[in-house]
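Deliverable D5.2: sample structural annotation.
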Amino acid sequence: MAGPADPPGGAPEGTPGGGEDEYRSVVFDETFVRAARLQEFSARERITDHAPAVRRRPPRHRGLSRQVLLLVVLIAMAFGTAIYMGVRHPSRTPGAGEAVEPLRMTVVPLAPEGKVPGTPDIERLYDNSPAAQFRVGAEGVTLPASRRTAHFSDGQIVTALLTAKDYIVRSALDPEVLTGGQTRSVRILLGVDQQDQFDRSFTRPAPDGRHAPTGWLVRFDPSRAELADRRIRVQGTLQAAETDSGTLEVTADHTSVYALRPADADPGSRVSLFTVRRELHFRFDREDLRLHQAQLVVSHVQAGPLSCAEDSASRLRPLLAGGTAKEGGPAATDPYATDGTPALCGSLAAEAQPWV
């Protein structure tokens, strides 16, 4: 028999709990009702207006949800921040907010004590000089044994040493540079922050300790002298050390010896030796190492035989075989020795010149 709540014929077939049980799990909340496209008129509306039982509601104008709007705003802010940071912080920065230190340079001419010795025999000239055991060209710029530091690997140390060596070779051993020709091969080894100082040194040279071309590289006045031998003798040292967690420093101390004759002279004319000692201090950060560039921060140059009365900032104007200087420095200076640094001008010691 049917229960008290069942219809007279009992529960319909296929519906175990009856019609109401079929929709018992469906919840019609307010949001669902508001979103319905059909709306039932109230009893009062149907009596008054004789309207149909239901009416179609106008479609709702759906805008962007709050989540989408928030996401768009965040993306726009991130994009704007990226552009702002890119403008304020270019990819090539000197360091932790610090400007790259400009090169400080000193060029000290060394005047001969007597006549400059010379002979047409170049090999004899070298053999009878302190440069007799020097190596030729880049072979004389030897690399020391390298060891990793607390913050730099073996490879980074070698990169710094090789970059310093490249600078020395290009700036003191390249005949094109020595004769007053091209300078680009030297310039490209400097960081972009120093290239303006380098350029100004050649466009407006000045003996101010900042803008002397001979502080950057060795170059002779081509109207005064020319190379008698392109096999330049070199000897010196390179040392690398870590100064802080982001900086390496390389100190270079090399003496280069050049065989010179007067410009446009006959091949059989007398040749003299010219000596340049350079102490260079390089600085590298990780970006410099990646780009194979250096910051040259100190350059101390001693060169002779020169006349102290002539300007040596722009070009070196050597005193050649048989030449003399009217003036000298306060004391004899030996560029082959490791002690003593004259301030403005010195005398080239007799033992620093060949005996012929």
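Annotation notes: The radius of gyration is 42 Å. The beta strands are 38-40, 54-56, 104-112, 135-136, 225-244, 247-262, 272-284, 295-304, 332-333, 346-348.
The annotation will be released with the project's public dataset once the embargo ends.
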